[in-house]
Amino acid sequence: MNLATNLPEQPTNEESKFKETVKENLEFLKSLVYLTKKIFML
User: Fold this and answer.
1) Which residues, at least 6 apart from 4, have a Cβ–Cβ distance to it below 8 Å?
2) CB 13 within 8 A of CB 4
3) What does the pLDDT look like over 1-27, one tens digit per residue?
4) Is the pTM of this model over 0.70?
């Protein structure tokens, strides 16, 4: 995870931030779908 911080220059800083955001959004959507399923199961 912290490999990029050890490098002197970070050309992919924006890219990693973008990937992190996408990852978080996917996690959020997954939990949202899970909750929705749970609600409809009731």
Assistant:
1) 10, 12, 13, 16
2) yes
3) 555 555 566 556 778 888 999 999 999
4) no
